[in-house]
TrEMBL record:
Molecular function (Gene Ontology), one example: serine-type endopeptidase activity
Family: Belongs to the peptidase S1 family. CLIP subfamily.
Pfam family, one: Trypsin
Organism, scientific name: Chironomus riparius
PROSITE patterns, per the entry: LRR, TRYPSIN_DOM, TRYPSIN_HIS
Name listed for the protein in its UniProt record: Peptidase S1 domain-containing protein
Keyword annotations of the record: Coiled coil, Disulfide bond, Hydrolase, Leucine-rich repeat, Protease, Repeat, Secreted, Serine protease, Signal, Zymogen
Amino acid sequence: MKPKSLLLLIFFVIITKVHAELIDCNFEVDDVQFYDGFEGEHKDVLSYGCKIQNIGVNDEGNDIKVNGDHMENQTDEDVTYFINEIEIVDYLASFTSDLCSKYPNLMMIHLRFFDIEKLEENSLENCQNLKILNFYGNNITEIPENVFFQNHELTEINIIHNELTTLPQNLFENQAELQWLNLRVNQINSLPSKIFKPLQKLHILNLGANKLQNINSAWFESLEDLKELFLDENQISQIHPDVFRPLQNLEGLDLSFNDFISQKYDQYKHVKSLKSLSLGANELRDLPKKIFLPLKNLEKLWLYGNQLSVVHSEWFGVHKNLVKLDLFYNKVTAVDERLIENSPIAEVDMEGNVCNNQTFEDRIEMRANLSLCFSNYKGQYPSSGTTRRPYQPVRTYATRGTTQRTISSIKTTRKLRITTATTQKSTTASSTLEEPIIINCGKTITGVQTVVGGTQTPRGAYPWNVALLHNKNTTQLKYKYFCGGTLISNKTVVTAAHCLKGKFGSHEFEASDIIVALGVHDLKKSFESGRTNIAVKYVYAHPDWNSNIASFEADIAVLELEHEIQFTNFIQPICLAHSGLNSVATGFVAGFGKSEAGHVENIARTVTVPIHDSKVCAESKDHESILGARSICGGSADGIGVCEGDSGSGLIIQKDGIHFIRGIVSASLYAPLYGCNVQAYSVFTDITKFRSWVMTQEDPHTQLLRIQAERDAYKNKLKELEEAKKIRARRSL
């Protein structure tokens, strides 16, 4: 059956099913999901009679959410007329204009986590009423110039997490109503100079997490109403002050995680309305005096993760609105105390700086002065009782059923939220204020080469491998291996959610039940040299993980360790993979899973895992029920693969000598003898689809160190390549 006709058949089946339930007004509560306007946030369903706002229907693997109106006693034709929103989370071979032909009042389309690589010119030609378009998490590499030509009513476009490198000049020619444009997490390295000229009503522009090095002043010429601009996580080293000249109403600017080493004294003279500015995680060593003087409305300033050594009051002058100053993890040795005289600053974070080198107990005893970098400071030092904030999903729109947007209600998921360090004092790890011992992520320092093919793993080959042990239903001192995991920072481990909360109530582990064995080579040797056992402080399973269904969608969890660990030859973190590494076709897994003899291995075995498109598993009827929308497929039919006990272990790839965790062992087909069928494909959680979520769960201090380690790994590799070129050049002479 052709993809086009298959798509229409799916819609026909589901709409018919919805209509039947509405006529009878007799549906089960479990069949209905209400959404409050943000992705993933559910409300309890009460008795609303027949006036239904949102109906979630699951049919044949497609999750289609239909937003309607009062549809009591309507005909089939009436039902299709009232439908104004469709959301599909599955696999779609093509996206055609027939969708809008069938539903003329369609206002919102969400096609997330498909394998769409290219939109056709006529894809949206019948969608004249479309207001919100969401292509989150696809593989779109290019967009036709005329694809939005008929969509005059569009107010929001979300093309986050795709593979775009640029956009056509006239793409937004007819989008005069557009208020929100999100192009985050692509591969964009350049844009046409007049690309945003028609978007005079644009309020939010997100170009974060791309590959931009230069910012064209012509991009912003018509964006006088722009309120928030995100340029974080690019490769920008300088921006001319006049680039911001048109943005006189800008209130939020994010330039964090770039390559700035300096700023001009008049850098922000044209953006006097700024209330929030982030320059975190750059390479700033000093800032010009009076740099922030024009920003009289500035309320929050983030300078974390730079190389600043002195904080000058001349940066600000007399500031009446600044309430938060974040200098977390710089190299500050002195602060001009005039900064806080007659100032409304209510929160200053100086954690991790040289001037704040006393122990936590010392700081507690000095509550009267609170921040030791300011001897007279009377404001609020970040609370020592910090608790992890709950998971907040990416919010793709503020309200349903309206085109109005309140800027203050839109909060994009930020990757770093700086607070004080943990209050747990470690007796075995170095102080959080000391410079960490780290060799960059994803590197081994034992000289052991990668070994694959179902063989035992030499000690130190993969220093990020950890073993998860539990003492539930055992004697208090006896711990039993149950899953693998991967160290990604000095305080964070990722594993599979089903390891902690098994399918259909088979088991459930709390943080207090678990210890993590790091530097482990032989599971039997509890006291082997180089091994460290550490308790778990918090457990965070992804909120989309559902242990009561067959699918292994969102099978990922984060463990926060009780305290920071000391890196050694046998304990090192790995780098998190990103979408730019999706072309790497082969990985490997080192795990303690069952061998051909049917028992758990005491020494981890390493197997090569060919990585396939998830469609390969999707085509197999056997995998249909377990495959998630954000999974990848791996393995081969040669009898070597992952098995029971490997769950939670990392699928590791290598690029330019750096190791990355690409996936997490999630599920495989059952076989009676060993518990797994190694001649069938296995399912892995795709870490690139959860990278942002993982980072929001990390302790802020360790998160920043890990991000810096990833950056350093790339920089050091570039240096190695340059040195190699020089050596080859000398040899050729």
